[in-house]
Amino acid sequence: MSFFKKLFGTAAKEEVTMSKLNIGIILGSTRQGRVSPQVGQWIKEIADQRGDANYEIVDISDYNLPFLGTTDGSEPGIAAWNQKLGELDGFVFIVQEYNHSITGALKNAIDFAREAWNNKAAGIVSYGSTGGARAAEHLRGILGELLVADVRVHPTLSLFTDFENGSVFKPQALHLDNVNAMLDQVVAWSGALKTLR
Ligand SMILES: Cc1cc2nc3c(=O)[nH]c(=O)nc-3n(C[C@H](O)[C@H](O)[C@H](O)COP(=O)(O)O)c2cc1C
């Protein structure tokens, strides 16, 4: 028996039956010709191989959200968006850099919910000429306000070396370890934060 086990004893194993966490892979861009579906699909394929959570792609453009505050709020997409976020325990944001920040579409979608974001975890996968790093850092500030715990590991993809002609996604193999490390943290923190809700 180890020194510490002798000192502290062995904790009784608790039988906890937990259902799998639901993690949404949120596509941050909505423009025609966007590359985010390719990146989101790549993340989902890696994630599905892990089998440690239910992963699904969540496409902002499916919800036809109006610009916040410009309508009476009765569009069904607004309620559906909140309901979808409410079903999720954690997120992976697919973030593209637009003028050194996130897209207006993603910010608008984020602003359309509040409690549905709270006490959940998120990872960020970004792309751009400098790996989308500036957009990702802006997103971290926004997530803090919404009580979303963003994890440290952050895969950054280059428009020059991970895409052909900036449009066909061909990720370098070196990103795989980083994606899995990011998912490890998202799953761990999503599970931990579930106990707060
Ligand atoms: C309005 C706009 C602004 C952009 N600004 C930046 C920028 O500041 N930095 C950068 O690295 N890439 C910038 N880009 C390039 C995008 O990162 C690139 O087009 C990327 O593919 C966009 O993601 P999407 O295809 O999913 O829409 C910009 C693209 C657009 C459309």
Strand-helix topology:
Elements: H1 3-8, E1 21-27, H2 36-50, E2 53-59, H3 76-87, E3 90-96, H4 104-111, E4 120-128, H5 133-145, E5 148-150, E6 156-158, E7 163-164, E8 168-169, H6 175-194
Family: Belongs to the azoreductase type 2 family.
Organism: Paenibacillus rhizosphaerae
GO cellular component, one term: cytosol
Secondary-structure arrangement, i.e. CATH architecture:
3-Layer(aba) Sandwich
* Topology-level CATH name: Rossmann fold
Number of separate structural domains = 1
Low-confidence spans: pLDDT under 50, at least 5 residues? 12-16
CATH top level class name = Alpha Beta
Task: Indicate the mean pLDDT.
Answer: 94
> Which shape, going by the Cα principal axes?
globular
Helix content: 25-40%
The strand count comes to: 8
Strand coverage percent: 15-25%
Given helix and strand content, the structural type is alpha/beta
In a nutshell, what does this entry contain?
It is built from 6 helices and 8 strands, in the order H-E-H-E-H-E-H-E-H-E-E-E-E-H. The protein is an alpha/beta fold and 197 residues long.
Describe what this molecule looks like in 3D.
With 197 residues, the chain is an alpha/beta fold. The chain has a single domain (27-194), classed as Flavodoxin domain (Rossmann fold, 3-Layer(aba) Sandwich). Helix content is 38%, strand content 20%. The chain contains six helices and eight strands; from the N terminus they run H-E-H-E-H-E-H-E-H-E-E-E-E-H. The chain has helices spanning 3-8, 36-50, 76-87, 104-111, 133-145, 175-194; strands at residues 21-27, 53-59, 90-96, 120-128, 148-150, 156-158, 163-164, 168-169. Strands 1, 2, 3, 4, 5 and 6 form a six-stranded parallel sheet that branches. A two-stranded antiparallel ribbon has the order 7-8. Strand 1, helix 2 and strand 2 form a beta-alpha-beta unit. The structure holds flavin mononucleotide. The site of flavin mononucleotide has 14 residues, from loops. Belongs to the azoreductase type 2 family. It comes from Paenibacillus rhizosphaerae. One of its GO terms (molecular function) is oxidoreductase activity. Residues 22-151 form the NADPH-dependent FMN reductase-like domain.
